[in-house]
Write a structure and sequence with these properties.
Number of strands: 6
Shape: globular
Radius of gyration: 14 Å
Distance between the termini: 31 Å
Strand order of the largest sheet: 2-3-5-4
Structural class: alpha+beta
Helix content: 10-25%
Strand content: 15-25%
Oligomer: single chain
Length: 118
């Protein structure tokens, strides 16, 4: 089901998305996580991608409902701390992280943190 952007509120900004991108680009290319995203207006979910220089920011961030990350770097405690310090809204589950750009009105959202067993 496609949700309307009016039914959601923003929880991230262009600056926060760029901080995420900049953090990932500090990693060696083989260590960078892959990502996919969902558009809040159309509901379109992109394919998985690893190209952080251009593809991640292509088209801007104004309609990103969420971005999922997966990769071995997510298990690194130092990377986790640096990611948490950005202050993005999100959740870490299993071997993936979902970072929110928009949240449905009425849904609670918390700052991204990693459980000790991640």
């Amino acid at each position: 089901m496609v949700q309307e952007a009016e039914d959601c509120y923003p929880v991230s900004s262009h600056t926060k998305w760029m901080e995420l991108r900049d953090l990932v680009l500090t990693l060696d290319p083989g260590d960078r996580p892959c990502f996919r995203s969902r558009c809040v207006v159309s509901g379109y979910v992109s394919g998985w991608d690893r190209e952080w220089y251009y593809h991640f920011s292509d088209g801007g961030f104004s309609d990103l409902e969420w971005v999922e990350l997966r990769g071995s770097c997510l298990a690194d405690a130092a990377f986790q701390r640096r990611l948490e310090q950005i202050g993005l809204a999100g959740q870490a589950e299993g071997n993936a992280v979902r970072i929110f750009g928009f949240v449905k009105c009425g849904d609670p959202v918390e700052k991204l943190s990693f459980p000790q067993s991640f």
